[in-house]
Amino acid sequence: MAISRFESEQYTSEAFVESVGAVLFRMSTKEICVLHLLKRDEYILAKGRRNCGETRQEAAIREVTEETGFPCHLLHLDMFTRAPPAVEKEQLGDEARFYAGICEPFTLQIRRPRFGNIKLIWWYVAAINEGDSFKKGQHEVNFGVEFYNFTDVTEKLTFQGDRDMVEKAIDIVTATSDK
Question: By CB atoms within 10 Å of each CB, which of 1, 117, 120, 127 scores lowest?
Fold first, then answer.
């Protein structure tokens, strides 16, 4: 039996969960939404588990709206990704390429909550639908919903991984908006 030349791990469906989240921008004021997890006094980003049959994009919009109370949409961004184009005209190497106006995850976070289990978290960039009204929901019981400007947001977030991710999202959004 041959052994793969690549380091790899394999998980069956009962050992992994897929979550989806988004860095939520309020574009008119150049602010980012942060959840204050009241029980633990932590400042985090909105995310949650993807339901069976739901696309990652659908899950991201649903979870962010449920947790923040703000209807939103995913942003189409100018960014690098290793994913091939929607229509491959030729065999391309496995390397990062720049695409304009794509709606893809910009970060994949991997957590190992318990031995033998894994949590994959796909992160998108989203913006509030500023014409829509705030929706009451679970966020009122579990979370405080707060907004911070681009400069202050990274200091408020509890976890360094979230800070790094928000900085990357700000960079991508700013570069996309500058065109």
Answer: 1
